[in-house]
Amino acid sequence: MKRISGNKLLVKALREEGVDTLFGYPGACTIDISDELYKQDYTKVILPRQEVALVHEADAYARSTGKVGVCLVTSGPGATNLVTGLATANYDSVPLVCFTGQVARHLIGNDAFQEVDIVGITRSITKYGITVRDREDLGRIIKEAFYIARTGRPGPVLVDLPKDVMEELGPAEYPEEVNIRGYKPNTHVHIGQLKRAIKMLGKARRPIYLAGGGINIARANEAFTKLVEKTNVPVITTVMGRGAIPTNHPLYVGNVGMHGAYAANMSVNECDLLFSIGTRFNDRITGKLHSFAPHAQIVHIDIDTAAISRNVQVDVPIVADAKEAVEKMLEYVAECDTQEWLDEVNGWKAGHPMAMKQKPVMTPQDIIEKINELFDEAIIVTDVGQHQMFAAQFVELTQKKRLLMSGGLGTMGYGLPGAIGAKIGNPDTPVISISGDGGMQMNIQELATAVLEELPIISCIFNNSNLGMVRQWQKLFYGKRYSMTCLRSGAACRGKCGEVACPEYTPDFIKLAESYGARGIRVTKKEEIAAAFEEAKKSTKTPTIIEFTIDPEDLVYPMIQPSGTLEDMILDC
């Protein structure tokens, strides 16, 4: 029987699993793997500038392609730098397989150089994690890692590779099948429960669909749109579910929750049936739990058994893959009697449209509306903050225009590396990132990656010189005490923001872009927006930074106040 090193088997496994892109950063415990990748001409290896960004790039690659994102980092700090990205992927159900280097087995537990128990550290933020202790098990463990990452509710899997295990000779065969005792994910819909839910849908007078991120993950958008049209039932979405149905569809009401549309929040408050598919019912959606959907029976379809009735008690639980459930529903449903209810919902939409106040100066809505106008097809990746909520409110989404973001963890710094990962996975699709000046500076070093990989992404910076979302809370709920949110504050004005003028300081993002070899454009007037995007679209190999000067007083509305209900919407200050 042929025997090969663990390093060779790993590269063979990557090929067998169809991994066409690897995001990696080398080190002492993975240098032999790097060498094997080179010797076997495994050329699509992306070298980011830091592991935190690396895992975000693999994450967005996975979200945008439906494939498993794959990471390779060294032991110690290389491994611990994955933590935030693993948590981000875990919250948002993103399939990743992350390989971490580890010291040799005889050194584990001895405080060796760059030794950490990365499996223990990440146990609560991964779907599964394991240290390979025996070379004979390596192939099976890698095979299981990919299977676990992509099946059931997708998620990140971590495989820790001791250096001596990878050097050791062992079986050359890579398994073709997986048989994991105790892991048998159920994705098949229970027809009896589904028919019960459909019967409730037919009897309801004020039904509404709540579409979560599970529909986008399952690629069930087209089937879900058909279901909505066949039943004539209005739709609201979570932020992560936005795009489950085209946002210009007449039956689409808007996002629900903390920064949701007035009509969407009122629909939850007044509906008699909430038909939820692929959502976790987290606190940003529900507000006070005892007041959520007070008049409604609730149906909940989700692939994750643990998500059902965890936060909201449901009347009909259905554990199933969203796409399979929706396609099965299409076989049984009929049009519902909803015209009176639709008239009421449309009245809320007309009376409280999603729009910012018109101003002579440039607003975030002005910028996003130009993106809608100039890009029929795009992947839009946001960072986290006010700009993220503006994007969730105003970006028009279709089957050709998608929105990616860190939803569950809310990770600042996701935008730029996320755009890089999405562009690598979708080279023929325009990719636009939207970040604040705070989030952009968390991973701005990835401009080097974008330049060297010749990725013509367009990276928009909404620059208000503040950590805008936190500042909004300080303005509305903390007596305008702007502590630790002004990005111009320092020795000259520490502790006195809002009382004294802060220095006129902000990084020169245009010079920063140019220093990395990217292009930079500054926009200060709304009349300049279209020309900036048209100029950026001309680039075929070089990333472009567009910096937009934004008023820090542009706030995100509606907003649910802390510990409020969906009725407690602040529509404006």
Automatic annotation (TrEMBL):
Domain of life of the organism encoding this protein: Bacteria
Pathway info: Amino-acid biosynthesis; L-isoleucine biosynthesis; L-isoleucine from 2-oxobutanoate: step 1/4; Amino-acid biosynthesis; L-valine biosynthesis; L-valine from pyruvate: step 1/4
Biological process terms in GO annotation: isoleucine biosynthetic process; L-valine biosynthetic process
Reaction(s) this enzyme catalyzes, per UniProt: 2 pyruvate + H(+) = (2S)-2-acetolactate + CO2
EC number: 2.2.1.6
Pfam family, one: TPP_enzyme_M
Keyword Amino-acid biosynthesis: yes
InterPro entries: Acetolactate_synth_lsu, AHAS_TPP, DHS-like_NAD/FAD-binding_dom, THDP-binding, Thiamin_PyroP_enz_cen_dom, Thiamin_PyroP_enz_TPP-bd_dom, TPP-bd_CS, TPP_enz
GO molecular function: acetolactate synthase activity; flavin adenine dinucleotide binding; magnesium ion binding; thiamine pyrophosphate binding
Major enzyme class: transferase
Protein keywords: Amino-acid biosynthesis, Branched-chain amino acid biosynthesis, Magnesium, Metal-binding, Thiamine pyrophosphate, Transferase
SUPFAM superfamilies found in the cross-reference section: DHS-like NAD/FAD-binding domain, Thiamin diphosphate-binding fold (THDP-binding)
GO cellular component, one term: acetolactate synthase complex
Domain Thiamine pyrophosphate enzyme TPP-binding stretches: 383-547
Cofactor: thiamine diphosphate; Mg(2+)
Note accompanying the cofactor annotation: Binds 1 thiamine pyrophosphate per subunit.
Limits of the Thiamine pyrophosphate enzyme N-terminal TPP-binding domain: 6-120
Residue span, Thiamine pyrophosphate enzyme central domain: 194-328
Family assignment from sequence similarity: Belongs to the TPP enzyme family.
NCBIfam families reported in the protein's UniProt record: acolac_lg
Protein name in the entry: Acetolactate synthase
